[in-house]
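[step 3/7] fold_predict: job queued, chain A
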Amino acid sequence: MVRDEIKALVEAAITNAQDAGALPDFSMPPVEILRPKQEGHGDYSSNIAMIAAAAARKAGGGKVNPRQIAQAIVDHLPADALVGKTEIAGPGFINFYLADDWLQQQVGVIVEQGDKFGNLGQGEGQYWQVEFVSANPTGPIHYGGARNAALGDSLSNVLEAAGYRVQREYYVNDGGSQFDHFAATLYARYAQLLGQDVPVPEDGYQGEYMIDYARTVVHEYGDRFLQMDRDEAIDALKPIGEDIVLAALKKELAGMGVIFDNWFREQSLYDEGLVQQALDYLDERGELVRRDGAVWFLSSKYPKNDKDTVVVRSTGKPTYFAGDIAYHYDKFFRRKFDKVVNVWSVDHQGHVARMSAMMQAFGLDPDRLVILMYDLVKLIRDGKEVKLSKRAGNLITIDDVVKEVGADALRFNLLTRAPESTIEFDLDLAIAQEKENPVFYVQYGHARICSILEKASEKGLATPEHDAKRTPARLVLLTHPSELTLIRKLLGLEEQIETAIERLSPHNLTHYAIDLTKTFSAFYRDCYVADPENPELSEARLLLSQATRIVLAKILALLGISAPEQMWLEDKKDLID
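[step 4/7] structure written:
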């Protein structure tokens, strides 16, 4: 990244200055290169001179003026085409300005690299898992789960762009009481369709979708299960019902562009003896104790846990947390992930501390497990919140929302805020053809660039590709402030990807996409892009337009959103003016 290149130049300058006697000997302090908060203070800035002054004093070099250190660093910077000029500001900040001629040539780099531009190598050799959605397999997914799906899937895309190997996993909670209630409900609906008076259990699922599932059973199996004892029939229906639900969930999630690499069934932990194996491992490490007929995990030994946790009840039945222990034992010890990210809704906040305790009890670095919490989604229609109740059968699903606003609008809007922030998803705005609708504005921006390139071709100005001999001479013509501003914005992609990984959230990318679209709009307003009377400048500007299209498409791909090449407006009004 540009920031890393400047950091390397500064480190070399400090070494050069010390070798030349311009700086006293001291251990190299960490060099931090930041984006200035105020416009006009350079493209990058560093406070290294103030930090170095303190390091020099500790090393016995006496009191040194930070501005003098800054000047010594600037004087000994290695020559590099990247930096056009430097300035020393305030008590000793060093501001760096990227060279115009270097900026111009980056357009060719972007066009040459195509959709690989912006990729990082920081994750090479690292195997991560992102486990997300993981709703109970008892019916369609509540639309609020779409935030979990968009967040987990887009984060996985970003990690892959940084070189990580990523597995997307859905944890199928088919080992608990909720799935028992589902199976009993399925049996009741199945029997009703065959003319039997079997009521839905009070703790069952009332949604109409249960009747649809039951119809599938009737169609495939007829009255076979009515020939069995009720409990036997319910047990027989469990795997059948689960397969029906999972097929529906896969289709529903695919409708918003989410495809999982693995669907891990909770019941397999018990069938393969992993629960007992994981508990035995903790027992051998002295992390379990027997009390009151039950088995307890000594979670109170660890920070932020004020009490121990039951893992095996006095009845001998493992608790849900025992399943969690076994599941993560499998992740880290059997499948050997370097890091695991679990995307959970905020109502699971109370479980986070004991998950950290579990990692420490395993003897693992707790930072290898990240619980990414996201807050609620409020669905707004006609200015009012839509209230829902899954248990009462009044269920608005992901599929319902996708059919109303489209997968792209759903994903983009759910990724505009940090995970811990509540989102109000306005259904009316999500389908509006206006600038205030962010996904429409960005997608239209991409389609607009495609249109510009196509119309340029119609004028005899063929869309150019990068040519090592031809391109550099054209790109030096990009001297307009709006052109250089746009190039700077394009070069921010790598840092945006890095930021998304640091935060484990891609929400900054939606804002970057909006800003990039606005910046291109200003460039297009200020610069005549396809001018047959000035073909060389037009070629340079068309290359810049192509580079912008590449970066915009890349951002949308990371977000899991399509980049259309054509869009039509109902009122024919151009959004880029």
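[step 5/7] annotate
The longest helix spans residues 230-254.
Residues 177-254 form one domain.
exit 0
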